[in-house]
Specification:
alpha/beta, 5-stranded mixed sheet, 2 domains
């Protein structure tokens, strides 16, 4: 747990807590006490620190329930749990679906309903939500925002994070039914934030279109790390397509399994004629998940644009027809 002058943040396991702890340490002036990353005390619940948190804003991380359940099971099978840290057999998908562990853990942190979280930090939008929380506490200059965005993943396990590969629809339904507290909190937190995110997303798309009109010629061919979002392809250039791309030219439908596959997608895009690779700000988590891909991209191709909206890499030389506007 972190105790601040005006806030207290609870380290709920398997919700990006170590990464969040790293982010908080970028703002030491706000911290009164921080449990060490290697100490089990870092997982102290709000009731356990009653006197320390009284009258303060309460922050807590959350994650989509199936992802939390899978991460918890993977961690227990690989490292075990406090205090003996003996690895345990990996639960089956059916066993995870029947478990109410998520509600048990959440209820403990909230003192069985005695404490109300003021600000939630979604693991899927960790840096964005973290900055939003800190804006309630202090002014954040751009250089410190940049440092937050540059923090890499911390203690993240490598496994297939695609939930559809682990659970059937009926198993997911059972899981949510068996964890009604987590379900209600997830529905509330994500629905409120996603409405705001949609407005932010539309603004991001507008800014990307403006930048592309400014930087690239109408003849440019642009590959876009889109996540399958068709709106991102509506740019004022000759041709756009999804990255990564399937053999039929449509969105690949899933993320690369590893760095090697990500690099293969990049080089295939170049072979097919892509002159630029555009990475919206919302897709920069790729650099955390695929660090070798990032090094390959940075070493071979020129980064021609970088700001809070997007990154643009030039995949072809700046020759006539390359798609770069003349200065």
């Amino acid at each position: 747990m972190i105790i601040g002058k005006k806030f207290a943040w609870g380290h709920l396991p398997k919700t990006g807590g170590d990464a969040t702890l790293t982010l908080f340490h970028l703002f030491p002036e706000l911290i009164v006490h921080a449990d060490g990353m290697r100490s089990n005390a870092k997982h102290s619940t709000f009731p356990a620190r009653k006197s320390d948190i009284e009258g303060k804003l309460l922050f807590l991380n959350i994650r989509r329930l199936p992802s939390w359940m899978l991460s918890r099971t993977k961690h227990r099978s690989r490292y075990g749990t406090y205090p003996d840290y003996q690895p345990r057999p990996m639960l089956t998908a059916t066993e995870m679906a029947k478990s109410n562990a998520a509600d048990e853990v959440m209820s403990q942190f909230l003192g069985h309903g005695r404490y109300k979280v003021d600000r939630w930090i979604r693991a899927e939008y960790l840096k964005e939500d973290f900055l939003s929380c800190l804006e309630d506490l202090t002014e954040i200059p751009e250089d410190r925002r940049r440092k937050v965005r540059q923090v890499q993943m911390v203690n993240a396990m490598r496994y297939d994070h695609d939930i559809s590969q682990w659970f059937r629809h009926d198993q997911l339904q059972t899981m949510y039914e068996n964890n009604p507290l987590w379900t209600s909190l997830e529905r509330k937190v994500y629905s409120e934030r996603e409405a705001s995110n949609e407005r932010t997303h539309q603004h991001l798309i507008g800014e990307i279109r403006r930048l592309v009109r400014t930087l690239l010629s109408p003849e440019a061919k642009v590959s876009i790390l889109s996540g399958g979002d068709e709106e991102l392809l509506h740019l004022d250039v000759r041709q756009t397509w999804h990255f990564p791309q399937g053999e039929d030219g449509t969105y690949a439908g899933s993320q690369p399994a590893d760095d090697r596959e990500a690099i293969l997608h990049l080089e295939t895009a170049c072979t097919r004629g892509a002159q630029f690779l555009l990475l919206p700000a919302t897709s920069l988590w790729w650099f955390e998940r695929y660090p070798v891909f990032r090094r390959h991209l940075e070493s071979r191709y020129r980064r021609m644009w970088s700001d809070e909206t997007c990154l643009i890499y030039q995949l072809s030389s700046a020759e006539p027809g390359s798609g770069v506007l003349d200065a």
